[in-house]
């Protein structure tokens, strides 16, 4: 009897529109994006460029806080402000321009300065998924940084000036489940096969197979077979050193009976088995980073406030303690083999992954209950992802910006030994912040003040450096000159570059996928280089 | 429409600061003055190739960096799946020309900007068109198109007594993205590494062996490829080739792939995967396109104004793990197919064994050539001879029999020159054969 032909699922307009990004962060990533609420402080060119790359992929909503009016100069650098909006509240004009990009996104604005909002609506900023601030003066940044640090709302602070860019991420703790590493070794467990896998692999006597069967046996089975032979010959131990691995490779290479093919070329599956020797013999153990997460105080001392991440971690920790390893990832790399042998193996791996994930899920639900939390905060889908990606779990712990600014000795001196280090621009940008606070203008803003401003800025930087206990003449005069040349100019293409980067950092924070910067990014468009520092 | 000079002065105040003030890191030729911005606004003509993810961003970036004489060329029309990043397009624009909609949007938004759209292929224009530009920026997803425009710019170089005439150079800036990765590079044709100098950057596409697809499928992709290359031609449900944009076609392939997967116990065939495999979809997000296009636009601005030294000459970008960028200099390849001016010599091991079809395979498969469907002609004893051309039906039929002849049978000798024409270049490549086997049996 013919089975009924499967029917194509209806593709919604939304999944068609977002197709190219759903292939990257998946429907579950998109869902988080669509639930997010983002706040932008100051609709500068940089600010709207960041929001543009968040509105397009479909965040839930944004709010712009900006008390400025649109000026002629804004029109020259900000694509989302039009000539007809000159004189209008900048927050309003930018909101309109951005909302045109995506009818799925909601947006509103507050035509008040961030300072005013801070003073009058204390907890206003606490209600967002992420707060982004551009061109925010130090005196407002400090209390905002303290407040958001206390409430745990991520804050992203950016500045674009001339050919330079600065992005600073403030987040107390951020947990990543899917880091999406570029190269990942397969997770095969051939050294410690679980009983079902061992029974299956032990059944195949690779050396006695006929020519045809031999060419169909998966590389993994071949490798396992010769690993057992090797163990028999070496008192039960597996190859560790390079020369020991070479010996195992040689065993596989020379195992073919000299019949049939005389060309000396190995069959593809044997070739693959030889290649697997390097990466697949040893299990992906519990790395130091993962062990640190499992031993983290947040994992060992759960509370009624603990997030699902830490509850699942605690359940995972118990599994690791009892089994000595992380759950099996459950995916197999492709390898030359006949369909049945391959699919059978694949199902064994999937089944084991499924069983382990179910165990972790049941335990996590129990833990949630025992903490007095609703078991609904643990979803089976989340636990499955968690187990599948347990070797890539990542916890980022950041620093508070206000602490950094008020810290008397930031750790910058070692960087300054390299005359090319972009850390110099960090120092100068900190000087620039001081300049703005002190003189209420950008250095070099007026044509006839460039030279005097160079001296003032140098003095401020000197003061900063001596506060930090750094030798004074470390920054190059040329770089200070260059920054004064800009006179506060915001170049659109520099802002657009930073806008793209910052938007993706925000997407990382929302989706808990990919690793964000920790914590300061400097872009130098003069030399087309960039660097990240932990401050 | 003329602008009020006062408001224009203010509006472009950001640019004027970096162009009218000296800077310690500017190019040695840089002399700050108001004339530079005038040049950018009134004289400097820039061509943007591609009005897609990078193209939309490039047009916005360049328009706000003061460029007003912009042209954009793209043969594509707008699709729903473009709207997550190609921000100049709206739902109502689906089906319209990308170049035309993008140009109209920019012209409306940025006062005084005159973007001229070209709704056609780059191959539809010749040297006379390309010569009008000062700088060309590419936001392409096709290697073939990159190589073609690269070849065009190289063919436009003038050498007098072996010296390159600097005025014949049109610099090209090339950007590319894939997911969260991207690159930006500056190419000065004839001076720095060109697209063909770095062909080894483009690895051949992953293909699955036919016997796996037909006999031992293991992955969902194998099932989809089976339907695509074996079942479709056999059953040909609509009497046409597969159109990846036709949802009926994709649905048919999805259903047949599911059947095959069920039959072999293979899991993981999804509609999205089917689409991805059939259309060879490359994932794309707004953020990476914004970043790479902006880096390219900054380089256009540097080249046009000399306000900074240009990127030398390649930048790679990746923001999967933090934000990573790396800048380095790609070397010009001494014997580059496109820009070296050195005649290409092709060693032939055994001209008595090598058939013309093997030679054509070599042009398509070797990393050095990576051609698509090369047409080959030669000159034997002063007479032009067509060896094989597949693009013109009548010639293909007439020359098909040559495919199975050996080079010797075709009358080719050690030192014979073969003229190769291919999609990857507007120019004819001349390849000199070098027979390594000394004792060539002469064919009768």
Structure commentary:
Chain A: Residues 18-529 form the THIF-type NAD/FAD binding fold domain. Chain A: Residues 10-20 have a biased composition (Basic and acidic residues). Chain A: This is NEDD8-activating enzyme E1 regulatory subunit. The complex is a heterodimer of chains A (535) and B (444). Chain A folds into four domains: 13-175 and 491-533, NAD(P)-binding Rossmann-like Domain (Rossmann fold), CATH 3.40.50; 195-280, no CATH class; 288-396, no CATH class; 401-486, no CATH class. In chain A, the strands form two sheets. Chain A has an eight-stranded mixed sheet with strand order 3-2-1-4-5-6-9-10, sandwiched between helices. In chain A, helix 11 packs antiparallel against helix 12 (268-280), helix 16 (339-370) crosses helix 17 and helix 19 (423-439) packs across helix 20. Chain A has helices at residues 13-17, 19-35, 45-55, 72-75, 90-99, 114-120, 138-151, 195-202, 211-216, 219-233, 242-253, 268-280, 288-294, 297-300, 308-323, 339-370, 380-388, 401-406, 423-439, 450-467, 477-486, 492-511; strands at residues 37-41, 61-65, 106-110, 130-134, 155-161, 164-170, 173-176, 394-397, 520-524, 529-533. Chain A starts with 12 loop residues before the first helix and ends with a strand. By secondary structure, chain A is of the alpha/beta class. Chain B has 444 residues and is of the alpha/beta class. In chain B, 34% of the residues lie in helices and 17% in strands. Chain B has helices at 5-11, 13-20, 34-43, 53-64, 98-109, 127-130, 143-155, 210-214, 220-235, 247-264, 271-279, 286-305, 356-365, 393-399; strands spanning 45-49, 69-73, 114-118, 135-139, 159-160, 163-164, 172-178, 181-187, 314-318, 324-328, 344-348, 375-380, 383-388, 417-421, 429-435. Chain B is globular and about 70 Å long. The mean pLDDT of chain B is 93. Chains A and B meet through helix 1, helix 2, helix 3, helix 4 and helix 16 of A and helix 1, helix 2, helix 4, helix 10 and helix 11 of B.
């Amino acid at each position: 009897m013919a089975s009924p032909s499967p029917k194509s699922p209806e593709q919604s307009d939304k999944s068609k529109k977002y197709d190219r990004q759903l292939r990257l962060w998946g429907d579950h990533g998109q869902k988080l994006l669509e639930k997010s609420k983002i706040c932008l402080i100051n609709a500068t060119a940089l600010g709207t460029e960041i929001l543009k790359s968040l509105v397009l992929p479909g965040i839930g909503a944004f709010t712009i806080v900006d008390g400025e009016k649109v000026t002629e100069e804004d029109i020259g650098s900000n694509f989302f402000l039009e000539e007809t909006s000159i004189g209008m509240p900048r927050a309003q004009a930018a909101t309109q321009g951005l909302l045109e990009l995506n009818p799925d996104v909601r947006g509103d604005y507050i035509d008040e300065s961030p300072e005013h909002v801070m003073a009058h609506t204390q907890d206003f900023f606490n209600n967002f998924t992420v707060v982004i601030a551009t061109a925010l003066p130090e005196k407002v940044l400090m209390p905002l940084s303290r407040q958001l640090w206390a409430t745990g709302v991520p804050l992203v602070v950016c500045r674009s000036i001339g050919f330079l860019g600065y992005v600073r991420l403030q987040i107390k703790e951020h947990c990543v489940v899917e880091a999406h590493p570029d190269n990942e070794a397969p997770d095969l467990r051939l050294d410690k096969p679980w009983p079902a896998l061992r029974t299956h692999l032990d059944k195949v006597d690779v050396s006695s197979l006929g020519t045809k069967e031999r060419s169909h046996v998966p590389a993994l089975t071949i490798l396992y077979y010769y690993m057992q032979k090797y163990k028999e010959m070496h008192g039960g131990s597996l190859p560790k050193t390079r020369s020991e691995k070479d010996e195992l490779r040689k065993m596989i290479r020379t195992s073919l009976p000299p019949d049939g093919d005389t060309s000396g070329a190995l069959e593809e599956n044997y070739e693959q088995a030889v290649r697997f020797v390097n990466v697949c013999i040893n299990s992906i153990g519990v790395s130091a980073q993962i062990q640190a997460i499992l031993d983290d105080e947040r994992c060992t001392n759960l509370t009624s406030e603990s997030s699902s991440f830490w509850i699942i971690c605690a359940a995972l920790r118990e599994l690791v303690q009892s089994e000595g390893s992380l759950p099996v990832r459950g995916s197999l790399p492709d390898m030359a083999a006949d369909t049945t042998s391959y699919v059978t193996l694949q199902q064994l791996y999937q089944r084991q992954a499924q069983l382990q994930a179910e165990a972790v899920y049941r335990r996590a639900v129990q833990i949630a209950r025992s903490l007095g939390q609703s078991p609904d905060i643990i979803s089976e889908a989340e636990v499955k992802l968690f187990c599948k990606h347990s070797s890539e779990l990542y916890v980022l712990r950041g620093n508070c910006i206000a602490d950094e600014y008020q810290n008397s000795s930031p750790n910058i001196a070692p960087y300054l030994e390299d005359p090319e280090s972009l850390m110099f621009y960090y120092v100068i940008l900190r000087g620039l912040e001081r300049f703005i606070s002190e003189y209420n203008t950008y250095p070099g803003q007026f044509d006839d003040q460039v030279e005097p401003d160079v001296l003032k800025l140098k003095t401020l930087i000197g003061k900063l450096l001596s506060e930090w206990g750094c030798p004074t003449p470390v920054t190059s005069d040329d770089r200070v000159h260059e920054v004064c040349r800009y006179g506060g100019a915001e170049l659109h293409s520099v802002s657009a570059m930073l806008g793209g980067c910052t938007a993706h950092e925000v997407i990382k924070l929302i989706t808990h996928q990919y690793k964000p910067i920790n914590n300061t990014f400097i872009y130098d468009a003069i030399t087309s280089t960039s660097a990240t520092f932990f401050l | 429409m003329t602008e009020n000079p006062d408001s224009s002065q203010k509006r472009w105040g950001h640019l004027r600061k970096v162009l009218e003030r000296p800077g310690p890191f500017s190019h040695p030729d840089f002399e700050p003055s108001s004339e530079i911005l005038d040049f950018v606004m009134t004289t400097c003509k820039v061509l943007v190739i591609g009005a897609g993810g990078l193209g939309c961003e490039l047009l916005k970036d360049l328009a706000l960096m003061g460029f007003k004489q912009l042209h954009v060329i793209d043969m594509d029309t707008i699709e729903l799946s473009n709207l997550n990043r190609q921000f100049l397009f709206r739902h109502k624009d689906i089906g319209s020309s990308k170049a035309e909609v993008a140009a109209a949007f920019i012209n409306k938004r940025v006062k005084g900007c005159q973007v001229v759209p070209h709704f056609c292929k780059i191959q539809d224009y010749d040297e006379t068109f390309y010569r009008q530009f000062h700088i060309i920026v590419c936001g392409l997803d096709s290697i073939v198109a990159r190589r073609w425009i690269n070849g065009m710019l190289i063919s436009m170089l003038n050498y007098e007594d072996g010296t390159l005439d600097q005025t014949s150079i049109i610099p090209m800036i090339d950007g590319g993205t894939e997911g969260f990765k991207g690159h930006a590079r500056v190419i000065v044709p004839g001076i720095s590494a060109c697209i063909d100098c770095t062909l080894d950057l483009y690895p051949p596409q992953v293909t699955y062996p036919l016997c796996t697809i037909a006999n031992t499928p293991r992955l969902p992709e194998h099932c989809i490829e089976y339907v695509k290359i074996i079942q479709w031609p056999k059953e040909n449900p609509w009497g046409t080739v597969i159109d990846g944009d036709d949802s009926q076609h994709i649905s048919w392939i999805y259903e047949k792939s599911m059947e095959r997967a069920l039959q072999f116990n293979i899991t993981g065939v999804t509609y999205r995967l089917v689409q991805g495999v059939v259309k060879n979809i490359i994932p794309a997000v707004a953020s990476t396109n914004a970043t790479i296009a902006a880096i390219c636009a900054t380089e256009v601005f540097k080249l046009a104004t000399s306000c900074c030294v240009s990127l030398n000459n390649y930048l790679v970008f990746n923001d999967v793990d933090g934000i990573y960028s790396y800048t380095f200099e790609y070397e010009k390849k001494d014997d580059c197919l496109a820009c070296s001016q050195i005649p290409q010599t092709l060693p032939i091991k055994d001209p008595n064994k090598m058939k013309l079809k093997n030679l054509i395979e070599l042009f398509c498969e070797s990393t050095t050539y990576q051609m698509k469907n090369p047409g080959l002609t030669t000159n034997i004893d002063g007479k032009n001879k067509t060896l094989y051309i597949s693009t013109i039906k009548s010639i293909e039929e007439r020359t098909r029999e040559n495919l199975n002849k050996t080079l010797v049978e075709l009358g080719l000798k050690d030192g014979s020159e073969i003229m190769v024409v291919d999609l990857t270049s507007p120019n004819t490549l001349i390849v000199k054969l070098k027979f390594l086997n000394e004792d060539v049996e002469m064919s009768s």
